[in-house]
Prior knowledge:
Helix content: 25-40%
Number of helices: 5
Oligomer: single chain
Distance between the termini: 35 Å
Amino acid sequence: ASENDQVRLHDFLLARAARGEPFPLHLDTDCDVFQCMYEELPQWDAERPRGSTSPRIVNRQTRARPVVAHGNGHTGRWFLSALYSELDLLGHLGLSMEELAHLPHEMPVPPGTEVTEDIKARYCPWW
């Protein structure tokens, strides 16, 4: 259990409950902070708010604008990869694909790669 963060969290919460202590965390059920992207279909829209140069995502259900996009799971990594190009995140940060090319990444394509219909069909047939 010491190497598994999810087991450690469960052990911590169960121990607190056994001592009668209240739940110590706030669950972000509206995606105010985090938008997890492990979904069958995107549950968010990309936007550039009027008068702002900062790209954002908006949760379709709650209309929240989370500050962290978590590309978890196989679909989440693809959705996050698509957002990099859709929102021009590298350009917003003043970076180029060449500057990042030497760095390892967990995304299915290098950050900034346009996720075209051809790439989707070749690498993620469920999309």
